Amino acid sequence: xKKVLNSKEHQNIVRTILKDWNLExxxxxxxxxxxxxxxxxxxxxxxxxxRLTPMGNKERIQLEIDFVNYLHQxxxxxxxxxxxxxxxxxxxxxxxxxxxxxxLFHYIEGTHYESDKLSDEQLMEWxxxxxxxxxxxxxxxxxxxxxxxxxxxxxxKLPRDxxxxxxxxxxxxxxxxxxxxxxxxxxxxxxxxxxxxxxxxGCIHIIDFESYQYSxxxxxxxxxxxxxxxxxxxxDQFLKGYSKERLLSDLELKAIPIFQHLHFFYLYGVIRNSVxxxxxxxxxxxxxxxxxxxxxxxxxxxxxxxxxx
Length: 309
Fold this sequence. Notes:
Elements: H1 2-6, H2 10-18, E1 27-33, E2 37-43, E3 46-54, H3 58-73, E4 91-95, E5 98-106, H4 120-137, H5 148-156, H6 163-179, E6 185-188, E7 197-200, E8 203-206, E9 213-216, H7 217-224, H8 232-243, H9 250-274, H10 285-307
Antiparallel strand pairs: 1-2, 2-3, 3-5, 4-5, 6-9, 7-8
């Protein structure tokens, strides 16, 4: 995909993809690149979000779409996908030998907030909205349902030759096995943090379900509110809001710190596997800065993991 972004034909490539929705005459604004490539599309005063996933798993993307549409049908405000001219939600293209899965979403207006800008009422609404999502997600019937597949994926991204890290991971697995049999599972958003919420007129709109997992509900709580985990007053308000829609068991409350720490293993693996460029080569300045930033994050997270008891 780097070839696509650097190509002089970049806009033409995106326009070719947009023909599937008869939107090839749109304004195209590149927003960001991560595991996906995201564009704002504007056509006749209407806005859309185009997401391109290189080497994307079509079955996983289809399950995401089914999940999002199910939540929408049950009254949650989510960024629903749009069928193309041939009634498909997912359209495959091949560019520069890359297989690309393209999905178009409705654009949602709203405001992002930082955690330190939220009132007690908003903190409660944040928690309440997650519980509402969970109550509906528990009824969703589709997909492969094995929460341990996520744990295996985390393990596969960890280095095999780092014995200190390996020992900490083995301790984590033993801890999980001792508690998870009594914890409820379902499909979770997995990234229900404030970056993926838009607030408008008292309503919370939920975006970016691409990281969804079939996992333990308490994990979604831990991952969502990780930025306020060290702020007891704010975290209590979040949990208070959540409990208005779904009561938490004592075991779930005790498990939250465990899943918060599990997330550090996940982040470590993701970051470690994303730094695949040699920093000694002659990259442009922004790439070198990104490599350094990711390496610092990797080291910081590893230090957190190794210090945890």
